[in-house]
Amino acid sequence: MSTVAPLLDGAVVASAAAALVVTPRVLRAGARPGRGRTIGPEAPLAAVVALILLNQVLVAVYVNRVHGGDASFIARYLPPGWFDVPRLDALAARFPAPELLAPSVLRVQAFLELPLVLLAFVSVVRRLDGALYVRLARSPLLPLAAVSYTAAFCAVEWDLRNPYTVDDLVLRVLSAAVTPPLIVWLARREPVADAAAPARGNPFLFALDLWAYGQLMLVLYDTALLYNLARIGDHLLPAAAASAVLVATRLAPRSVAPRTGPHTEALTATIGRALALFLVPALAIRYAESFGTPRLAALAGLLVIGAAARRDTARLLLPAVAGAAAGYVVAVLVPGPYYEATLLRSATGALLAATALCALLDTTRARLVVRS
User: Fold this and answer.
1) DSSP H or E stretch at residue 231
2) Does the predicted TM-score (pTM) go above 0.70?
3) Which of 14, 35, 264, 283 has a CA positioned 20 to 30 A from the CA of residue 103?
C-alpha cells in the first residue's frame, strides 16, 4: 500500500461527505444569470492545454541542451513510462540560455494541472446544461473541489517525491488559490436565461461529448502530462477524431436525439446531479484506486451515483441495468491500455445503452398514449 494511502482515503471520505451534504443545497438554490460577453470555459481550457504543450517543447530544449538528451536526472525518481522527450535538435541548438528553462521540468505543470482538470470538468457540464454549469461554478462546490483536488495531487506528489517536490507543492497550493476565481469570473459572464430551469441537455449528444473530452484528456495524459511528447504522433488520429466529434455535437441541432419523454428527461436530470455530486470527490476517488484503498474509492463512487439516481430510481431501473450490462461488456471485450481508458469506454457504452432504452420506453409510452 502507498505511504500516502491514509491521506488519500481521508480525502475520499471528506470530499464525498462534503458533496453529499452541499450539492443538494446548491441544486435547490439555483443560480443567477451572468452579465457581459460570454466566454465559456472552453477557450481558457484550450489556452491551458496550449501552455502545457508549449512547456513540453521547452522541456525538450532543456533536456537536450543542458543534459545532453538524457532525462535520467529526473526520470529515475518516477515510475517507468515517463520522459520520452523528442530531440527537436534545430530548435534546441538555437535556443538562448537553455539553463533558464529548468522550471519547465515538473514545476510549470504542477501549477497548470488544477486549472486543466477543473476547466475540463465544467466544460463537460456546460455541454449538458449551461444553467448547471453556472450553478456549480458560482457555488461553494468549486472551492471545495479545488481543495480536494489539490490534496489528492499533493498526496501523489509526495508519494513520487523528487528534488522538485517542495516547489511543486507550493505551486499547487498557489494554483488552488487562483483557479476558482477564474472559473467564477467566467460563469458570471454566462447569460443563462433561466438558471433554475430543468436540464435541456441531450443525453445522446452528451455521451459523445463525454467520450470526446475524455479521449482528448487521455491523449494529453499519454503525451504531455507524462512528459512523453515524442509519442504525440501515435495519438494524432484519436485527438483529431475526438475534436471532430466535439465540433459535430456543437453544430448538431438539439433535435438530433432520441424521443424526449419522462425516461429521457429523468436520465438527463440524473446525469446532471451525478456531475454535480462528483465535482468535489472525483479526483480523490480516482487516485485512491491506485494510491489508496480501492474498495473505499468504489464505495464512495457508488454512494455518489446512488444519491444522483435516488429521485428517479423507479423510472431508470431498467435503463440502469441495461447501461451497467453494456458497460461491463465493453470493459471485458474492448478494454483500454490502462484504467482510465477502460473506464471511459465503459462509461460511454453504458450511457449510450441507457439512453437508447430510455428513448425506446418513451416511444412506446407515446404510442400507447396515442392509441388510448
Assistant:
1) none
2) yes
3) 283
